Amino acid sequence: MVAGARAKIVVGVTGGIAAYKAPDVVRRLKERGYAVKVVMSAGATEFITPLTLQAVSGEPVHRDLLDERAESGMGHIELARWADLVLITPATAHCMAQLAGGHAADLLSTLCLATTAPLALAPAMNQQMWQNRATQANRNVLLERGIQLIGPGQGEQACGEVGPGRMAEPVEIADAVDALFGPPLLAGLSVLITAGPTREAIDPVRYISNHSSGKMGYAVAQAASALGGAVTLVSGPTSIATPAGVEIVPVITAAEMYEAVINRAPASDVFVSAAAVADYAPAQAARQKLKKAESEMAVELVRTRDILAAVAKLPQPPFTVGFAAETNNMRANAEKKLAAKALDMIAGNDVSDPQIGFNSDENALTVIWDGGQRDLPRAPKSVIAIELLSLVAEKFHDKHSAANS
Fold first, then answer.
1. pLDDT tens, 138-155?
2. Strands (E), 285-371
3. Low-confidence ranges of the chain (pLDDT < 70)
4. Which residues are identified as catalytic?
5. Which residues of 7-21 are buried (b: 16+ CB within 10 A; e: fewer)?
6. 270-273 and 280-282 as β-strands: parallel, antiparallel, unpaired?
7. Tens of pLDDT along 380-389?
8. 273 exposure class (CB count in 10 Å sphere: 0-12, 13-18, 19+)
9. Phi and psi for 20 in degrees, rounded to 5?
10. CATH fold of 190-286+297-400, please?
11. Which residue ranges does the chain devote to CATH 3.40.50.10300?
12. SS3 (DSSP) at 140
């Protein structure tokens, strides 16, 4: 089976009440870097709309066995060839019976017959239906054929009964998929990330800062955690909730961020500098609020310490990734920064474009490293973060393999 992020999963959704959990399963798979396409049975559309699953997957939802949009109208063959895994969630008793009997009654059951990819099912049904001898016989047939079953669990069911047949929770399904594909890309790695702006005080009321929202850095932190990394996020002031599983180190000034990073970087495997750190700070902050005068006010500014360059110059630096937020000549400026600071990788983005600039929910990056580059086209920042970290993991392992050879 293909391992790592961007593995391709066809998620099949069948007609059970647990179909309402399917969007959460798709969302969690996307967060972990998988490419997802959704197939719905006719019954599934009675419980949840295709539009919902299209929104979370970012792909059109497939429902028709003979699809005019597909090559030669044979969408089931295209999907069967595309998939690295077919995951059915929820899998009803009827679905299990179809697969056990080798039926090809609709798009989902047909592509399951046509694919060479592994199949995994997350069963969901009434506890009595699950324990029925026919369902258990079908379960045994599927297991004998090497089909993976994720759950079901025990608990309260929509019908009010309690017992086996409850669909596994979305996070449990995503974890099981990770296990099928092998260790996550960043498993065993310590990842240090900076995010957000810094604030440099002029007086107790005023400060110098920038327009960074921190969204990109937080997306990178969430993605790194989802990909198995042990993540520490050094964050300037933002209003974003800390991603699950991420250690947060809040700071305000560039000096505080410098100390937090330098103290942690030597023990880190990867450092991603996504923060918009102030390049200048007032030479001295006034103790009291400065009163407006008739004449102009001058504030002496001094350079802040360069966090990214300092990390790259450590005796044994982590794999160091910088960001270059530019308003013109983005690619050339990013290449210059990569060389000048001796970075392993840099991600350039054009913040003059309001659709991918500060405070936007989407981004587009040009990722450059010694001897190569890749454009990551406009997408939600959560998707961009996964794609960026997939490249980071690839080049990190390439670098260490070369060093050990």
1. 988 888 888 889 988 877
2. 301-303, 319-326, 345-350, 362-369
3. 1-6, 66-76, 157-159, 294, 405
4. 159
5. bebbbbbbbbbbbeb
6. unpaired
7. 888 788 889 9
8. buried
9. -65, -20
10. Rossmann fold (3.40.50)
11. 190-286+297-400
12. helix
